[in-house]
């Protein structure tokens, strides 16, 4: 049986694509490079939208990327159930593309922050979080200047009521996100976006002082292999 | 507006030219006339004025810098030495590392954010132009007193500039320094270092060989950035005031630079580049003259083909523009289509603006008329060289006689430790470094606050050959030591960076330096410079690490008051198995705490004298270079044999601060006893060639034997564990209290 294939998207200005591909490989999957200008998903089983400053974050983070030729393919596929994970800039792009509700604004402290952050897993029903237990506290790096999650009151209530808040910051809210939200999912649960970086927490030697990011990749590969 | 062509220059030999406004001396201008056999055109004057500037020609420093070559130790690791964009070092298994540090001091004072940002951008392009993938950056920063109002303007801007530019580029920031001293008010130092990796057989050089080869300008469009000088020229020559009020600090676009990096790497991979040069200071002038001078010797350029962001730019301004994110490549006619296709893939504008010739002349035309016709070597390599006079500063002897032994000793060592730990120079730099991405690309093994940054090589370039190796990098420099004795100060800067690399387990291999001084026209400053260079060259020889390149920054002074002489030294090392790297500080309970090296009473220029007494006098610690070498041998061998569980170098603030930092690293305390009979000296003296390490009890004998074999003094001080730093009979401080003191200072000042 061939390995599950996870697409890793590169926009101009994407930075964490190499890390994302490495994390997929370490978990036993095949990382398939997807190019922003090429409207072809190459038959992948899931898609990882990595962090960075796509198109220089000009205009607004993720605002230009959502119009990339690849996104014309990705958006309907995601709506139809393709598992998609967006981290950091990837989360911003998912919000701009209206695949996830709400928006990410400038950090409350107005500074870019890079630090190892405590996060609580609130939902394990997504294809990206099944390897965790509900309420489990993990450590992942955050590194962003615009990660303050905001949404209108009705949306927030719906997210909370529907169990769509997947991750919350613990041990201090680093950026002023409403309800300490670090990551959310869509109603169907196949699309997850979060500001922290699981791909930087998969090896003992490098990255964050934890390997808690591995759970994301074992989750999706287990789901794809069993599918 | 009249175009000042070569023909016109020949016809109007007496036309007054604004060479003085461009910073040229009369004899320099006369020399240009002599070289050309006529007056230069305004475009030629633009080229010579920037190429012969202190910044580009090193005219005041050259005679001293030669020692880095003449005294250089024999090094098998050195692949490319001084004189190229950056030095290249063999790090094994077919891999090479290239690294360099460069100043962007003056722009960072004028406009902190853009000044610092473009400092990062510039050094990254130097590394790219060697054929390498840039893999990390670090910054050595100096500011005025932390609580000075202007520091609150300059520091946040500088940090944001580095943060924004470096983070957008996707380069991890793995270390550096932040130092405060009133001498840097008005003259902050922003020294940016970049390191890159490449395959040993793929080094690119700045050269334009092969007549008929195409000269391609690619990257950002050319605009009116950083051309204050050219505006003088344009307005003086053409009486056109509209260009006079342009900003002289360049503005960076890190997104464009990120695309340039990926584009260049794809160009290298496709092997479609004969020679390449980045456009930094002096822009097109520098790139064309240097490429031509190092190649076949001639080049024809159609300057009107340079793509412009501002179509009103005059040729003189195009020649001097320092617009960022531009590169120039030499490409064979056969490869030009492939070259252009790769640029198009990355949305990088690329334009053929000329051709290599064997005429021995750099000829530039503007809409068909010749405006430049010079032998390129005369601008690139044959600039003026000055033997500037120097002598010891008037107050130097008195300064050295003012021994800190006269200062009152502290009664309370606990309070002294906390006071030092919370002082701006020793306090946590988290406020600064948390604004830098240290994780991107996933190869960061150690980063700040570790003694040195350590990177894994293997996955730095996807698809590259596997290796277990890693590289380590540190920068250091102590302006107070150098003020007291520039010769020793430069050696101590090298010694500390060398030691910081060695404590991680890496073997120090090569050196880069950024020499920050006041005006070379002041003989006292020039003495400091001459002494520092002599000291550094001698120390490099003793330690067996060659200087591969660097940068000189003069004129860091306000009025007649210069900064402390501040040689900042970067050392690159290699570790054979990066998984064997040793973390900084205490990593677990029950390890033996061991002090390596001898402690003497050395308080000249110390952090204690500075913080507690505001005193600077006496002599700095003795630079014990042989001891440093032996210490490094012990540290690297012990690391490779897996004997060490943690290590940390002793420097500013001595053993007291090293112990505190080791506890703070992972919240592991310790109980130790002092070995000398004077607790104050044991704790706060800044003797060099010392390190603090931890070993498992079962490894202690083997480690002690190793130390004995290399004659490195080795003192068992105690054991790790508990929640306090306990120095028996002297002090006890809970780690939580250390942390609170250490972490409160910078947020308290900068918000």
TrEMBL record, chain A:
Q: Which InterPro entries match?
A: Class_I_gatase-like, PRibForGlyAmidine_synth_PurQ
Q: Which residues form the active site?
A: 88 (nucleophile), 197, 199
Keywords noted in UniProt: ATP-binding, Cytoplasm, Glutamine amidotransferase, Hydrolase, Ligase, Nucleotide-binding, Purine biosynthesis
As recorded in UniProt, coiled-coil segments are: none
Q: What is its EC number?
A: 6.3.5.3, 3.5.1.2
Does the entry feature the keyword Cytoplasm, yes or no? yes
Localization per Swiss-Prot or TrEMBL: Cytoplasm
Query: Catalysed reaction per UniProt?
Result: N(2)-formyl-N(1)-(5-phospho-beta-D-ribosyl)glycinamide + L-glutamine + ATP + H2O = 2-formamido-N(1)-(5-O-phospho-beta-D-ribosyl)acetamidine + L-glutamate + ADP + phosphate + H(+); L-glutamine + H2O = L-glutamate + NH4(+)
Which CDD domains does this chain map to? GATase1_FGAR_AT
Q: What NCBIfam families does the record tag this protein with?
A: FGAM_synth_I (TIGR01737), PRK03619.1 (NF002957)
Task: From the Swiss-Prot or TrEMBL record, give the protein name.
Answer: Phosphoribosylformylglycinamidine synthase subunit PurQ
Primary gene name: purQ
Automatic annotation (TrEMBL), chain B:
Annotated ATP binding sites: 58, 100, 513, 550
Q: Which Pfam families does UniProt cross-reference here? A: AIRS (PF00586), AIRS_C (PF02769), FGAR-AT_linker (PF18072)
Q: E.C. number, please? A: 6.3.5.3
| Source organism of the structure | Streptosporangium fragile
Q: In which pathway does it act?
A: Purine metabolism; IMP biosynthesis via de novo pathway; 5-amino-1-(5-phospho-D-ribosyl)imidazole from N(2)-formyl-N(1)-(5-phospho-D-ribosyl)glycinamide: step 1/2
- Gene symbol here is purL
Binding, substrate: 103-106, 125, 250, 322-324, 553
Q: For the PurM-like N-terminal domain, which residue ranges apply? A: 83-197, 451-575
What does it do? Part of the phosphoribosylformylglycinamidine synthase complex involved in the purines biosynthetic pathway. Catalyzes the ATP-dependent conversion of formylglycinamide ribonucleotide (FGAR) and glutamine to yield formylglycinamidine ribonucleotide (FGAM) and glutamate. The FGAM synthase complex is composed of three subunits. PurQ produces an ammonia molecule by converting glutamine to glutamate. PurL transfers the ammonia molecule to FGAR to form FGAM in an ATP-dependent manner.
Give, as one word, the top-level EC class: ligase
Domain Phosphoribosylformylglycinamidine synthase linker spans what residues? 15-59
The protein, known as: Phosphoribosylformylglycinamidine synthase subunit PurL
Reactions accelerated catalytically: N(2)-formyl-N(1)-(5-phospho-beta-D-ribosyl)glycinamide + L-glutamine + ATP + H2O = 2-formamido-N(1)-(5-O-phospho-beta-D-ribosyl)acetamidine + L-glutamate + ADP + phosphate + H(+)
Q: Where is the active site?
A: 55, 104
